[in-house]
Amino acid sequence: LTRKTQTFMQIHKDRSVNGVPVPPEQLQDMAERFNFVSTSSHSHLIKLEFWEIKYRLMAFLVLAEAKLKSWIIKYGRRDSVELLLQSYLSFVEGHRFFDQYEIIFTALKQAAEVYVKSDSSIDEAEGVSKFLTETTAQWKNLALEVRSVRSMLEEVICNWEKYSSTVASLQAWLEDAEQMLNKSESTKRDFFRNLSHWIQQHMDMNDAGNFLIETCDETVSRDLKQQLLLLNGRWRELFVKVKHYARADEVDKLRQDYQDGINTLKMFMDATNEKMTAPIQVSFLNVRAFVQDVEEIKHKVPAMEAASKAASRTAQLLTKDTPQEEISQMMTVMASIKEQLSKVRERCLPLLRESQSLLPPLEEMERNITGFYQALEKASRITSTTDSEGPVDFKQKCQELATFTHSCKKCLTVIERNHQTIQKVMSTSKTLQHMDMSLLQKRVADLQTSSQNMIKESTEWRKHVEANSSLMKRFDESRVELEKVLKMAQSCLTERGNPEELLKKHTEFFGQLDQRILNSFLKACDELTDILPEQEQQSLQETVRKLHKHWKVGLNYLTVSRKPCMSLSTKPAPQ
Q: Which UniProt keywords apply (predicted)?
């Protein structure tokens, strides 16, 4: 259109075409017509686009309906139905049938919206709206029918498969069954024991056959009717002669169901009696496990009662085909089980309530037993050490020992209180007679003994450490006094001056020296050696030898130094 516009503008300008003049009236007419085309071309294009998508959608729906008609037919045999299903899947899934509709319809709605806006005609807008509404309704019905085609085809194939398999198996069984009629009674009873299975097979064959007769074409339906007529005739003729064996099979199944139910109930009762009456040593873990067992039994009782009722109904059904003696035995068994179940239900609640009441005190006992032994272990670490302690360490360890001892006493008090609570429950209980308190009593007695031993060991440890500290203190005091004297003696011996004055001074000092200082030190050393471990005795002995040596050296030096001084004092005075 743009190119045409440029050409016309050139003609209008030149007033001629290829040099041939164009009358003004003709040019004016062409201009008016060209202007009309130019202004209306856009709306025409919008309208044409709407119509194109509209007819494309209509063609899609026509094709879909044609396909639907080709699928909704009277069917043939299985292979032809499978071909129809393949054709359906190829068209619907292979060509994305439903997705294609959504794409086209979405494009149509968008084009319709633009078209209605560009055309101010109310009639045209109403026509477009009506078409969209009708198309939506048409598609809804069409889509529903198309989707149902697949399930229908699959159901037809399934019935063909069921019909073919049951016909084949039933024909083979009928051949064997007809020959079995001439056998002995025991052989026939054994062969027709599963007659109920073939009754069900016969019903399945007829159900599938009747479905196929209704859905298949006339030729196939006629063949199916003929085949069913022949097989049902053979079946009726045989069934009249052997139908009484079906009851025998039914009775066998009832007997098996009854026996299975009784076995289940007996197993439950045996397990329940074992759990409820087996001896149990009273402890938190054992009682908690027992409570869980009783809760499980309580939850199973309703199901077992239902199983008992089912077994009773089965027993009633067997009365017509069971000897009177066996019936009496069955009734006795059922009455016994019913009575046992009633007793279990009666026992569960009080047994559960009383055993649950033991759990809080037992749990608190276990917690405090753990705390007791933890404190006892820490106290034992202190009392097992007999080394001499300094005043500060001794005081701190005494405080720690007192804390641990108090913890043990506190835990033991809680344990004994809970033990009494448990004893009270056990003495008044009528349902917990199978629970044994001996192990718990032994544990409490062991705790009491351990507590008494700890108190005794703590007292002995304190006395021993105090005695050791006293010996250490006496040794330290005597050592300090001895070292002080030796230091003074050493100072005297190293002093320089007038020999006579020094002699006099030394004689005076050593004359006052008390041998008891050394004796006191040696005695304290001997006493301390008795309590010290071997690895520390050597160091003590070295200290003693060193100080003793210093004492002897001082005395020897005094004796030697006095002789020269005496010889000097006896010499004549110089002239």
A: Membrane, Phosphoprotein, Repeat
